[in-house]
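Dear all,

This email documents one entry for the complex benchmark we are building for the journal club exercise. For each entry we list the sequence lines for every component of the assembly. Then comes the predicted three-dimensional structure of the complex as a token string, followed by one or two observations. Please use this as the template for your own entries, and keep the labels exactly as they appear.
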Amino acid sequence: MTAAVETGLTTTIHGDRVSLLRVLGPAHVWALGVGIVLVGEFTGWNFAADKGGALAALIVCWIVGLLYTSVAMIDSEVTSTVAAAGGQYAQAKHIVGPLMAFNVALFLVFAYTMLEVSDAILLGDTIVAKAGVEGLTHNSFIAATIVVLAWLNYRGVLMTLNVNFVITAIAYVSIVILFFSVSPWTQGAVLKLNELVTPGNALPYGWIGVIAAFQFGIWYYLGIEGTTQAAEEVRSPARSLPYGTMAGMITLLIAAAMTWYVCASLMPWEYLGITYYPLWDAGKLTGSPLLENLLFIATLLAALASANGCINDAARAWFSLGRDRYLPSWFSAVHPKYRTPYRSILFLLPIALAFAFIADLNQAITFSILSGVLQYTFMSINIMMFRKKWPLGSIRRGYTHPFHPLPAIVLFCLCMVTFFAIFLGFGSQLIAMTVFYFLISLWFHFYRYKFVRRGDQFSMPWPKPQGY
Amino acid sequence: MSRYIPPEQSKAGQIFDIAVVVVAIFVALWLPLKLGLAGAAKSIDPLDAKTWDALGQNATMASIWEKLGYTPETAHDIIQNRFHYIIDWPTLIIMAIVLVAYFVFLFRASDREYREVINEKFDDK
């Protein structure tokens, strides 16, 4: 076994300092963010139509877009200033404190691991549906997806994100091709929005349905904040992270609008709300075999890109916990050859596999959304504390987001609405998960924290925070 | 302020802590599934007459259902499977209390730890 001892930002192996490689540019940041999220257009967002109707899915697409624009703005400022692996985890450590950092890392690991599980289930189900062979199950496809992608991540971050860039770009282009192939400027030929979304069925549950739809509206964009996980592997964090994140958000807003318009114009909301493959179905309903096959392949690629990015992000968050001794330091080892957090990658592999076999798609999605919303609630408070402890001008920021504190207030309010939305269908699950985070926090605060080196938790070259 | 020297954790201790975390993850995520707590609160509102018209589907919608391989009989359970949004106030209040208590504990305990970090970091200089 390799003798690994963590030392600040690097790991010492046999006397040599081995750190994560700084090899990524803005395109990789974009690919990491959009790659994780784009699968949301291929499945998941449409469950918002189930909860509130087709129009509710559009309304939440815009409003949740606002939530994520706030997330991207806030995240860009904090991460371009706190450029360390772990993203929001490193932010929490420097701004709020170790216990919050521990929780944020768990939010990240759960959100990304369950998103990876959702991707693998989607990929398996899509292949089984396409094959149409009686008795064929998705299990082998799920296992192969998770294992192969874990191996890819084990081998190196640059290769992983280069692959992500290519497959994300292909999946995105397929949505654009579908959009322009159905003559979006003409109603009646292929698209029939006014006959499918009528005054009588646009909001079948009224406004309570719109609020309920927030739960799955999150899925349009969930994971864009994952760009910050690569902070320590980006060549120029101050430039690449804001640029890659904001470009990713714009890309996703456009893709979400196109996806809703095409899907809502091609299928009744009751079907749209339950299908696992809305874009592939849209391709089928155009009657074009070319579009059908293109969207089938794009669905698989989107799922692969997302799962790939999720393994990357979850492993880095777990690695950071080990490096700071919030969890056993065994997890903090960096591979001597590939320079990846390989033990964290391998540890999370069986957890993802286990849940891929015991949870169904919308349960896995809900687990992921729950952790995501807890994290966004933290982010809205975190930016207020950041600005208070280090006002503008007191430290060098790579990027300063405008209109503060408006994005933080908007983000906090929308998180509260989303908690209520989750309560409307999955309230017991929300309580169970919060109780878990509460208990594991007690474990950390009263037991595990004794292994943590106090002063080492603050590694940024900043002045003492105001008020301390 | 004197520098805090954390105890070194034995291998057995590390393995035990890893086991605690793994068990906690599985309990938190798997138990709601096992107890049937996870999943949406939907139920089917059955109709006697299973026609496209009775199901509220116009001619365009009916043609799309048929293109997707459905008949009024097979589409019935999809179309009539509805959410019933009833606000269960006791559960909502419990959820709000749990969430608020969690965040209050999180910020207060974090602040206590953060003060130790800041004191050690800046008193060293």
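Observations: The radius of gyration of chain A is 22 Å. Confidence is low (pLDDT under 50) at residues 1-17 of chain A.
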